[in-house]
Specification:
The protein is an alpha/beta fold. The protein has a single domain, classed as P-loop containing nucleotide triphosphate hydrolases (Rossmann fold). Helix content is 35%, strand content 25%. It has eight helices and nine strands. The strands form two sheets. The chain has a six-stranded mixed sheet with strand order 5-6-7-3-8-9, with helices on both faces.
Length: 246
């Protein structure tokens, strides 16, 4: 597989007038084309900090990041759809901000909406969508930029449990069918195992990498994966690695 991202010895220190806090320490891992990677770890350990650094919304303190000239796009926790824009216009807004909307881009987005059961809502507004549909629109808005790597920050955290299961399945299906590489931060071990090819487990702050698991399950469908006999084995190992109560 082709290497699309390499992180070496990444470190992040937050400074205040009185103190400094080390959030990340010596984070190193490699991402290959087409991989779906999840990052899990104790609350507040710096999972989202990694995504912020990769998306250039936060500066690193030290370390090397080699993107191999790949383009990154960031899908936020909340859908952030604009209520006064149609579904199509919401999906095109990133391209419009960049002044890059072409007929080809517009057709690409329309095809995505049609392919993922949103075609009937192209000219409707967000208030006519369910929570799960809004997240699908948010993902297609991110895909409209044609990134090589998608960053997903707790993409189902604002949803109820049942909707979260459906959206996890939708996100996994869309990303795999569109042959994209993804890095997802999640607090949900079940979600990480059900969606990922690889899981990176972080320690408590200052975060280092405690372990990396290659997930070998027969299905790519998150709901089917949960029925496989090895699913619980992965869960127990990752739960123990988190050391939440130590």
């Amino acid at each position: 597989m082709n290497k699309v991202l390499e992180i070496k010895n990444l470190k992040k220190i937050y400074h205040s007038k009185e103190t400094e806090t080390i959030a990340l320490k010596d984070i190193s891992f490699t991402v290959y084309e087409g991989e779906f990677i999840s990052i899990v770890g104790p609350s507040g350990c710096g999972k989202s900090t990694i995504l912020s650094i990769l998306s250039n919304t936060l500066d690193k303190s030290s370390g090397d990041i080699d993107l191999n000239n790949k383009k990154i796009a960031y899908m936020l926790q909340n859908d952030c759809l604009l209520s006064y824009l149609t579904v199509l216009d919401n999906c095109l807004i990133g391209l419009k901000i960049q002044g890059k909307v072409t007929e080809e881009d517009k057709n690409y987005v329309i095809n995505l909406l049609n392919n993922y059961a949103l075609g009937d809502f192209i000219n409707k507004y967000p208030n006519s969508l369910s929570g799960g549909m809004k997240q699908r629109v948010a993902l297609i808005r991110t895909l409209a930029l044609k990134p090589d790597i998608l960053l997903l920050d707790e993409p189902t955290s604002a949803l109820d449990y049942q909707t979260s299961l459906t959206v996890s399945k939708d996100i996994s299906k869309i990303i795999r069918q569109e042959k994209k590489t993804a890095i997802m931060v999640t607090h949900d071990i079940n979600q990480a195992i059900s969606m990922s090819d690889k899981i990176i487990v972080l320690t408590k702050r200052p975060a280092t990498i405690k372990s990396i698991y290659n997930i070998n399950l027969s299905s790519n469908n998150p709901l089917d994966r949960k029925k496989e006999k090895d699913f619980n084995d992965y869960y127990e190992k990752i739960w123990k690695d988190l050391d939440i109560y130590e």
